[in-house]
Structure formats: structure tokens, C-alpha cells
Design a protein that fits this description.
The complex is a heterodimer. Chain A has three helices and five strands. Chain A has helices spanning 5-10, 26-30, 56-60; strands at 15-16, 36-39, 42-45, 66-67, 69-74. The relative contact order of chain A is 0.26. Chain A has a domain at 19-67: Alpha-Beta Plaits (2-Layer Sandwich). Chain B folds into two domains: 3-150, Jelly Rolls (Sandwich); 154-226, Arc Repressor Mutant, subunit A (Orthogonal Bundle). Chain B has nine helices and 13 strands. Chain B has helices at 3-15, 25-34, 89-94, 115-124, 126-152, 155-166, 180-187, 191-203, 219-226, and strands spanning 36-40, 45-47, 56-61, 63-69, 75-82, 86-87, 101-104, 108-113, 167-168, 171-172, 178-179, 207-210, 213-216. The chains are: A alpha+beta, B alpha+beta. At the A-B interface, helix 1 and strand 5 of A face strand 9, strand 11, helix 7, strand 13 and helix 9 of B.
């Protein structure tokens, strides 16, 4: 389930575990940008460029098949501490 | 991999482990020949809590988590182990079943050394015994700190410290992606509580969540938040 780092960093999208997905389609219904679809009984990200990472799919998934991955970075703005 | 190659690889992996740093090549070779190599896929269970002792495990490559699981499926991550580290010492030296469950977080290769081999080495190599004692004492300190965290610190404080540990000077110590569920398991909480804690840190202006990045925008403020005891 863990993606190649560089590949994921370019276009991060929620990951879908096919072993857990039961194809119920709830994620498709809640996705506000139409990034997901059910194909052959499994949810897939069909429009990665449309995904805005809201997490609604992750929250809606009853089998915890969809998960978003995060990285933690220091991102202090120029000019010192706020 | 041929038996000779396997033993050679095992010897290389084991020699990098501080436990075995003082052992002579012949002894190391003997241990390597008795070690068993195992490969695990992402998500695969290495062993379960309560099972008979699997032996001392040494990670050649990969990343694994040591967890306690509750009957309703909640998990608490006790530690994360990576290449060059050993785990399951407690089971080996306490002569007890495995005290926790170990799961591979990514494809991992592990060498397993039987308990009887380790016990014999302890008798013969006091330097090694001292290193193992020191390591076990460090584990105790880590677990004491964890108890303090879980019982005395708020989830926000735990989260603040975890985020600071994950990022260092703008560069990740290890470029590793984590789900919020995994973060919750490390902090001894559940996803909903973790989400609320993240939102509070965002509202306090300490972090920002931008797509796939959790950005620390006020490191000093986050450090102060991590020290808050309530």
C-alpha cells in the first residue's frame, strides 16, 4: 500500500486497497470532483488531476479501504517565527 | 540464494548490529549459519502476540511496527524497527511468549536467531551481554516515556511531539508517508480524536494541512505545545 515516494509526491491521490474495497461506491458518491469511479467492482482513481485530497472518500469508506498518505515537513515562512 | 551466500549475507547483517560488534568472525559465521532468513510483504504479520518465542529478529531491510492490539481492533504502536535493528529481545531473554505483534510496513527481510543460540552467546561473551542489557534498559526508558505520554499528556501534546520528530530542519529523516490511522495508532488514540487534534493545531496557527503535507509553520510554538502537561 505504500507507494513509491517520488511517484506519490508528484501526484498524491488517496490509495485504495483492492483487498478491502467491496465496490460499494460510497466514495464515488461523496467525491466532490468526480475523481473516483467503480470499475470491475473496485473503486479506482480515474481522474487523479481532479482529486483535491478532501478526505471525504476516506471518511465515507465503510471498509477503510481508502487512505490518504501525508508527509510532515518544516515549512516556516521567511521572516522567522510567527 | 545458496546456503553459503545466505550465511555470508547473514554475517554482514549481523556484524552491523551493535550486539555483535565484539564477536570474532568465526563466532559470527556460526551464528549466521544458524540464522533463518524470512521475507515479508507489506502488511504481513511476522508473528503474533502470545505465540511461542520466535527468536531474536534482526532486520536486514524494510520497516516494521511492533504493536499491541485490543480485542476491538485498536492498536498501539510500541516501536518502529528498521534495517540494522533487532527486535523481540524481551521474549528471548524473559523466556516468554512474544509480548507484542509485529507487522511489516513495507517489504522486509528479517533474520531470526534461535533463543538457545542467543543464550549460549550470552554465557560466552560478556561484552555482548552488556550491550544487550544496555539496549533493554533503553527500551524500558522508552516505554516509561510512552506511559508518561499516554497517561499525562493530551493528544495535542503527543501529536505536536510526533510531528516534530517526523520532520527535521526542513528535511525528513526518512521520507515516509503515513496515513492518519497510522499516526493515531502511534499516539494511542483513534482517528476521530487525531483529526480533532490536527484541526486544533491548525487553528492555533502551528501547522497547516495542505493536500498531502502536514506543514510545521511555527516550530517553536509546536515545541511549546509538545511540552504542555495537563
Amino acid at each position: 500500500m505504500i507507494p513509491n515516494d517520488q511517484q506519490h509526491a508528484r501526484q498524491p491521490v488517496p490509495l485504495i486497497d483492492p483487498a478491502r474495497c467491496d465496490g460499494c461506491g460510497l466514495c464515488v458518491r461523496v467525491c466532490p470532483t468526480g475523481a473516483l469511479a467503480v470499475k470491475d467492482g473496485l473503486a479506482v482513481v480515474v481522474a487523479p488531476e481532479a482529486c483535491n485530497y478532501t478526505g471525504l472518500c476516506e471518511a465515507a469508506c465503510p471498509t477503510e479501504a481508502i487512505q490518504r498518505l501525508f508527509e510532515v515537513v518544516i515549512f516556516e515562512k521567511p521572516g522567522g517565527h510567527r | 540464494m545458496s546456503r553459503a551466500n545466505a550465511a555470508h549475507t547473514a554475517a554482514q547483517v549481523l556484524s552491523a548490529l551493535p550486539y555483535f560488534a565484539e564477536l570474532d568472525p568465526a563466532t559470527l559465521k556460526t551464528i549466521a549459519q544458524a540464522a533463518t532468513r524470512r521475507e515479508y510483504e507489506t502488511g504481513q504479520v511476522v508473528f503474533l502476540e502470545g505465540e511461542p518465542c520466535a527468536g531474536l529478529c534482526v532486520v536486514q531491510d524494510g520497516w516494521l511496527k511492533v504493536v499491541k492490539l485490543s480485542p476491538d481492533g485498536r492498536e498501539q504502536v510500541l516501536r518502529i524497527v528498521s534495517a540494522g535493528e533487532a527486535f523481540n529481545e524481551v521474549s528471548v531473554f524473559a523466556v516468554a511468549p512474544n509480548p507484542a505483534t509485529v507487522v511489516a510496513l513495507e517489504p522486509s527481510t528479517v533474520w531470526i536467531i534461535q533463543r538457545k543460540v542467543m543464550l549460549r552467546l550470552l554465557d560466552q561473551h560478556p561484552g555482548m551481554a552488556r550491550r544487550i542489557l544496555q539496549n533493554l534498559a533503553e527500551h524500558v526508558l522508552h516505554l516509561v516515556a510512552m506511559i508518561e505520554d499516554l497517561s499525562l499528556r493530551t493528544v495535542e501534546a503527543r501529536l505536536a511531539r510526533h510531528l516534530l520528530e517526523q520532520a527535521s530542519a526542513g528535511k525528513l529523516r526518512r521520507h515516509r508517508w503515513a496515513t492518519q490511522a497510522e499516526m493515531a495508532a502511534r499516539l494511542g488514540t483513534v482517528l476521530e480524536v487525531l483529526n480533532r487534534a490536527l484541526q486544533r493545531l491548525v487553528a492555533e496557527g502551528l501547522i497547516e494541512v495542505e493536500r498531502h503535507q502536514i506543514r510545521i509553520v511555527d516550530r517553536e510554538g509546536l515545541k511549546a505545545r509538545a511540552m504542555l502537561d495537563e
